[in-house]
Amino acid sequence: MTMSSGEQKERREEKLVMDAGDIARAVTRIAHEILERNKGVQALGLVGIRTGGVYLAHRLVKRIQEIEAASVPIGELDITLYRDDLSLRKEQPILRKTSVPFDISDKIIVLVDDVLFTGRTIRAAMDGLIDLGRPAEIQLAVLVDRGHRQLPIKANYIGKNLPTAREENVQVLLEESGEDDRVVILKP
Amino acid sequence: MSLKRKDLLSLAPLSVDEVKLLLETADSFKEVTGREIKKVPALRGRTVVNLFFEPSTRTRTSFELAAKRLSADVINFSPSSSSVVKGETLLDTARNIEAMQADIIVLRHPSAGAAETLARGVKSSVINAGDGWHEHPTQGLLDLYTIRDRGLSFEGLRVAIVGDVAHSRVARSNIHALVKLGAEVRLVGPPTMMPFEVKKLGVRVYYNFDEALQGAQVIMMLRLQLERQGKALFPTIREYARLYGLTTERVKIADPGAIVMHPGPINRGVEIAPEVADSLSSVILDQVANGVAVRMGILYLLSGAS
Fold first, then answer.
1. Between chains, do A82 and B41 touch, taking CB under 8 Å as contact?
2. Residue A70, Cβ neighbours under 10 Å: how many?
3. Which residue, among B227, B59, B75, has the nearest Cα to B130 in the 3D structure?
4. Touching A: B residues 178-207, CB under 8 Å
5. B31 vs A97: CB contact, 8 Å cut-off?
6. Are B126 and B119 contacting, i.e. CB atoms less than 8 angstroms apart?
7. What is the distance between the terminal CA atoms of chain B, rounded to a whole angstrom?
8. pTM value?
């Protein structure tokens, strides 16, 4: 959900919910939790959902490397072709490439996304992932869980639970896309 | 940026950004065709009809595979086994197909402009898979994709298109797109095979093959349509092969890294020597492989809800 939000800032009021320090600490805690739950990096792989999830996955892999001194394979997933609203859209969304350069079969795959909302993206991501192989297990890590699920999906690792109104817009802004690290709620 | 078109009829009217979008979209599908499970659900529930009024194996199979890998349902329709032999018009045939809820019609037809006529008459998206001597836009795009995939950039790229340019819809699509993207296009062939008003195309015309090959980075051979022999375009096939056939010696005149392309089917020993067709500089089979990914991209981009 990361957007180039220079223009957004001027037009809409934003409420800061996580700053750079909060994000860094959440990433560090999730990295520890992933290692604790899976007893190390054995058979572990991280797959970020484009675009915000990819940035966070890279940060998690880096942190895990610092903690455990072991490297974890990383992939990038574009879920567009698996969306459930393709037949409803007038113009098809731009595709970005999926690149998972390791065999996911029999691995524990941690899917990484920035915001967990309706759960539809994660459903699409799981379908996309399973087309690439048969993981032993799929886990889910998100920086923000904002509620309002429309599918029975739950994250294993959560940076911050953020109660929101449905019409509010939660944005995770990251340095990788030219922003100062922060999570904001944009008022409708 | 998205493709705001119902149909893909020709490359001539496309903007540079539209061409780039089509090529970049094909990248994603190239990844899909490299997977063990070469199928994505993007066009689930959609119907693609291949309506081919001319014989074709490569293009029809390529479209069929592309549609199937997108999870669309595909119907192949050819006139020999249909009501066309009973005198039905193109538009009536297409309207019947449309009444069966076809979302995309892929049309190959011997008359230039057939795809455009069809597109105006039906609500379904229409993809031109070759109309007479006019255009073959999906072949043009897969050729561009193959060039780009080899790491060549279009700005200033020296491309020689060799053979019966006048009667080649493949050449016409390539010329329009390559000139648009800034390439230096050289047309090579006997004067009888050069299109009318060739000067307006923004290309250079050569009658001497060796001259045109100097520094060429892409050598795009066209199929000599042997059925045209006897129509006063060239005296004998042997003479044609000597003057305009691509041999190993001629490849050496071109840029050291030059690639050799051909839309197929090839006439070995006529426009292309067997050892050239099978050489490392030949990307003929890459063109075929890329064709599926490029067509998946086109089907995807045209599949928006109407």
1. yes
2. 12
3. B59
4. none
5. yes
6. yes
7. 18
8. 0.91
